[in-house]
Amino acid sequence: MTTYIGVLDDQWRWLSKPPKVFNSSPGVERTFCDHCGSPLSFRSKSMSGVMHFFAAAMEDPEKFAPTLHVAFEEKLPWLKLADGLPTRFGPDYTKG
Predict the structure, then answer these.
(1) Under the phi-then-psi rule, with left for phi > 0, alpha for psi from -120 to 50, and beta for the rest, what region is 40?
(2) pTM over 0.85
(3) Distance between CA 73 and CA 30 in Å, rounded?
(4) What φ, ψ does residue 25 adopt, rounded to 5°?
């Protein structure tokens, strides 16, 4: 399971050299550290205008409280969420 923090494009910037980019499939861009290979972010054309940063790569991920669960249909069967947050299914999590 992966936790992403979605940030609107005009609300973030790289503070140093931009990471390496890998286009993993049509319309999907992933970035990673060119030194150690750690994944840093994910962007999809189907969710344009938002960069999704890996929480595990952030200095203080606990500063970002979750507001919803996306791609909920991909969760492992043993995962039970009881936090009351909304869930979104499918590739366009902004609807519904």
Answers:
(1) alpha
(2) no
(3) 22
(4) -165, 170
Tokens 């923090």 label which residue?
5
Question: What are the tens digits of pLDDT across the range 18-50?
Answer: 999 999 999 999 999 999 999 999 999 887 789
Give the C-alpha separation, 28 to 59, whole Å.
25
CB 54 within 8 A of CB 4: yes
Structure tokens at 45: 């054309």
Interstrand relation of 4-8 and 20-25 (parallel, antiparallel or unpaired): unpaired
Query: In whole angstroms, what separates CA 5 from the centre of its chain?
Result: 5
Q: Is 41 exposed, middle or buried (0-12, 13-18, 19+ CB in 10 A)?
A: buried
Chain segment 65-80, per-residue pLDDT in tens? 888 888 888 889 998 8
Residues recorded for the chain:
96
42 C-beta neighbours (distance < 10 Å), count: 19
